[in-house]
Amino acid sequence: MAQDSARHKEIIDFIGKTKSEMPWPQIQNRLQARGFSADEIMAAVEEVFPGQKRPSQRRSLRAGLIGAAIGLIAWLLLAVLYHGSH
């Protein structure tokens, strides 16, 4: 049991140190290369990021696409207004 808590603390420390330095998939790959299971990693993620089970790449892609669409619509609207004023 003490070994399990030491492993858990090691994962938490690693995530805490590297979360702002590298992307999540790279952190996960390094932890798996060190021999940690997916369940151990997710338990630590729940502790480091409370209420967030797993960082989602789909949400960030969707947000980026929505932002790009809004930017394109705004650009087109401004282009039409500029063209109409001349």
Overview of this structure, please?
The protein is an all-alpha fold and 86 residues long. It folds into two domains: 1-55, Arc Repressor Mutant, subunit A; 56-86. 78% of the residues lie in helices and 0% in strands. It contains four helices and no strands. The protein has helices at residues 2-18, 24-33, 38-48, 57-85. Helix 1 (2-18) crosses helix 3. The protein is rod-shaped. The N and C termini lie far apart (76 Å). 6% of the residues are buried. The model has no long low-confidence stretch (mean pLDDT 85).
List keywords for this structure.
86 residues, mainly alpha, Arc Repressor Mutant, subunit A
CATH architecture of the largest domain: Orthogonal Bundle
Q: Estimate the strand proportion.
A: under 5%
Q: Can you identify the CATH class of the largest domain? A: Mainly Alpha
User: Which fold name corresponds to the CATH topology of the largest domain?
Assistant: Arc Repressor Mutant, subunit A
Could you give a short description of this structure?
By secondary structure, this protein is mostly helical.
List the helices and strands and how they pair.
Elements lengths: L1 H17 L5 H10 L4 H11 L8 H29 L1
Helix pairs in contact: 1-3
